[in-house]
Amino acid sequence: MKFFTTTSFIFFHIFFIIALVSETQTLGTKTNYRSNKYIPLFIFGDSYLDAGNNNCINTTTYDQANFLPYGETYFNFPTGRFSDGRLISDFIAEYANIPLVPPFLQSGFNQYYNGVNFASGGAGALVETFQGSVIPLKTQARNFKKVTTWLRHKLGNSDSKTLLSNGVYMFSIGSNDYLSPFLTNSDVLKYYSHLEYVSMVIGNFTSTIKEIYKRGARKFAILNLPPLGCLPGTRILQSQEKASCLEELSSLASIHNQALNVVLLKFEKQLNGFKFSLYDYNSDVTQMINHPLKYGLKEGKLACCGSGRFRGKYSCGGKRGDKHFELCEKPNEYLFWDSYHLTESAYKQLAARMWNHTENSRNIGPYTINDFFQDM
Ligand SMILES: *[C@@H]1O[C@H](CO)[C@@H](O)[C@H](O)[C@H]1NC(C)=O
Ligand SMILES: *[C@@H]1O[C@H](CO)[C@@H](O)[C@H](O)[C@H]1NC(C)=O
Ligand SMILES: *[C@@H]1O[C@H](CO)[C@@H](O)[C@H](O)[C@H]1NC(C)=O
């Protein structure tokens, strides 16, 4: 009796090889983390990107959105996002095939391979901006440092370096630095000229970018500032009769945006491996305000949720000192969700424009976010 026919011998070998291979693969995923398989998304900034960090800090309801009707369209509960549903960063995560990126302060969350969200509603590049009720950009950068330490402990130097350089670093910051002097009784704009103030904001923003770059970041995805004087909440800062934008604020945003463009081009030359994807949020939001129908929206100026003219009074949810507020029936027909923030349906369109170049929009560049999530 032959023990091994040729076929059974071959079979035995194939089986053995398969067993061996799958064994190493199992071991591989358990003990050998593969950093080149992950492109994490790290998110910094303000309420345009905060997914719930401010739920966990000592602040006021002005800087929180953890009550209904916030979240009513998509999550069916208030997550802390300043919208009726998902934010730009949520759609970017979806397009990149990674799970929703959790807030850094969410309790029990400490797996950072797919990234983490540090953004905080009300935050600015200056520590003085809404000081005491937000997580300023500098503190967000310090929290990022903690995450890099965690990754180094888990993965070792080489793999954590790969992961960090593959990662995409998304920023929306600056709006609150310009809004706060108009919304509080600060007279900072009496002491500084517009140019001086902008260079202070840009200086602090770019020193954070450099710091994060030094910790290994290479791919920066940055939203510039929207037309800040044309939000429902800033239009109403003008006298009753006027329905136009608050020009001084929109002008500060434009000066900021030009300076931002210049400094990013400079970094591209100066910093080895530095890549950026600058999104002209200003241009797309301006278009949507003026031509909502082109974007499948019906209303570009009036907010869905709030009270008073343009529903510009920041009372959405009735928890900010004023119980009365109005709420539209179909948020997906509106550009603005509340006095300062956009609806999910607007964010979805903007995210798509950041992800790909489209025929009628080239407001993202030099890289698209899609480029950043390919191996490069
Ligand atoms: C929260 O902030 C308020 C006002 O700044 C302060 O009075 C209070 O002690 C703080 N609470 C905690 C738990 O830190
Ligand atoms: C950062 O902002 C502070 C005010 O908070 C200012 O004094 C400082 O000059 C700014 N730094 C840069 C590099 O612009
Ligand atoms: C981006 O472009 C690709 C290729 O044309 C397409 O398959 C994809 O659906 C687009 N993604 C978005 C979010 O528009």
Automatic annotation (TrEMBL):
Keyword GTP-binding: no
Keywords of the record: Signal
Stored SUPFAM superfamilies: SGNH hydrolase
Domain of life: Eukaryota
Signal peptide: 1-28
Gene3D superfamilies in the record: SGNH hydrolase
Coiled coil: none
Database matches in Pfam families: Lipase_GDSL
Entry-linked InterPro entries: GDSL, GLIP1-5/GLL25, SGNH_hydro_sf, SGNH_plant_lipase-like
CDD domains membership: SGNH_plant_lipase_like
UniProt GO molecular function: lipase activity
The family this protein is said to belong to: Belongs to the 'GDSL' lipolytic enzyme family.
Protein name: GDSL esterase/lipase 5
